């Protein structure tokens, strides 16, 4: 797609620190390196976000992630964990609108990365929880 920075990277129109490429995905270092080895895995097909994936594309992308994760682990034996993240839409911190998966190696509790899930276990009744689950369930197609 025209004017898409990740399409341009895939097409070698702008440089990147490539890690892996095949017919389906392109993986390269995130320029901002939240931690050492922070990698983006990008489908070669331009899709904006997760809502545009079909099952085949999702399988193509996610099938390749474990071997890239293992490559990070082998490259950096001091790595103690890995966060895998996919941001969708601006509110959820998406800033490049060509879908991508972040692999963020973790080295210590004090590295420059955190995710905060609020704990609200006591704020919804079992009936509310069931209603939420039912509402979603009937939309899974
Ligand atoms: P997100 O905020 O989830 O959309 O992530 C977009 C990521 O793309 C950010 O972490 C940026 O640092 C990264 N990024 C933007 N431009 C480039 C580029 N030219 N090369 C590598 N990474 C980039
Ligand atoms: Zn694109």
From TrEMBL:
Tell me, what is an example of a GO biological process annotation in this record? Answer: nucleotide metabolic process
Annotated motif Histidine triad motif, positions: 98-102
Report the GO molecular function annotations: catalytic activity
- Supply the source organism for this entry: Enterococcus malodoratus ATCC 43197
Q: Where is the active site?
A: 100
Official protein name in the record: Histidine triad protein
User: HIT domain: which residues?
Assistant: 5-115
PROSITE patterns, alphabetized: HIT_1 (PS00892), HIT_2 (PS51084)
| One Pfam family named in its UniProt record | HIT
């Amino acid at each position: 797609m025209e004017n898409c920075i990740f399409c341009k990277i895939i097409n070698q129109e702008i440089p990147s620190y490539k890690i892996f490429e095949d017919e389906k995905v392109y993986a390269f270092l995130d320029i901002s390196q939240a931690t050492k080895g922070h990698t983006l895995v990008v489908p070669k097909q331009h899709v904006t976000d997760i809502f545009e994936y079909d099952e085949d594309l999702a399988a193509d992308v996610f099938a390749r992630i474990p071997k890239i994760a293992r490559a990070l682990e082998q490259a950096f034996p001091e790595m103690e964990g890995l966060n895998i993240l996919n941001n969708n839409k601006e509110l959820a911190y998406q800033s490049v609108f060509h879908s991508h998966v972040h692999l963020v190696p973790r080295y210590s509790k004090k590295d420059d990365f955190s995710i905060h899930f609020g704990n609200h276990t006591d704020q919804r009744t079992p009936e509310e929880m069931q209603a939420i689950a039912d509402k979603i369930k009937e939309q899974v197609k």
